[in-house]
Amino acid sequence: MILISTGSKPNRPAEITFYDVHTFDSDTFLQMERIPKSLAVIGGGVIGCEYASIFMVLGVDVTLLDGRDRLLPFLDSEIAGRLRDRFLALGMHLWFNERPVKVENHAAGVRLFMKCGKTLETEAALFAAGRRAAFDGLALERPGSP
């Protein structure tokens, strides 16, 4: 047996433009030039919760949104609930069952248009909604060919 460990890369939805100074994924996020005053974190999984909590402690106005009905759905619901309550106590804004359908970058930041019709404006946005296997270029569609 041969195991090829390809690693992973952030999931980048096609409707989101990542080539802007206001919109990041979990790999490019630490390359930002300054700490924003406000941040939208899309994804309530491990990476999203981690970055949201770090930036809350740094004094950033954080809105964390997720398409599911709770944070970290693989955890026991009581533990996830305590994390939610702690985030709320720190002043974090939580939007559940919500996701952006369109993103506009402008000089002052990012405008996220949500599926419910709401609009969220922040200085920066972090898309931390999943990762995928990094197997581009391995020709997996042609096994056995040189």
Structure description:
The longest helix is centred in the middle third of the chain and has 14 residues, at 77-90. The model has no long low-confidence stretch (mean pLDDT 87). The chain has a 5-stranded parallel beta sheet with strand order 2-9-3-4-5, covered by helices on one side. It has helices spanning 46-57, 77-90; strands spanning 8-10, 23-25, 38-42, 61-66, 93-96, 100-106, 109-114, 119-122, 124-127, 131-133. With 146 residues, it is of the alpha/beta class. The two termini are 18 Å apart. Helix content is 18%, strand content 31%. It has a domain at 23-99 and 124-129: FAD/NAD(P)-binding domain (3-Layer(bba) Sandwich). It has 2 helices and 10 strands; from the N terminus they run E-E-E-H-E-H-E-E-E-E-E-E.
Salient structural properties:
18% helix, alpha/beta, FAD/NAD(P)-binding domain, globular, 5-stranded parallel beta sheet, single chain, 146 residues
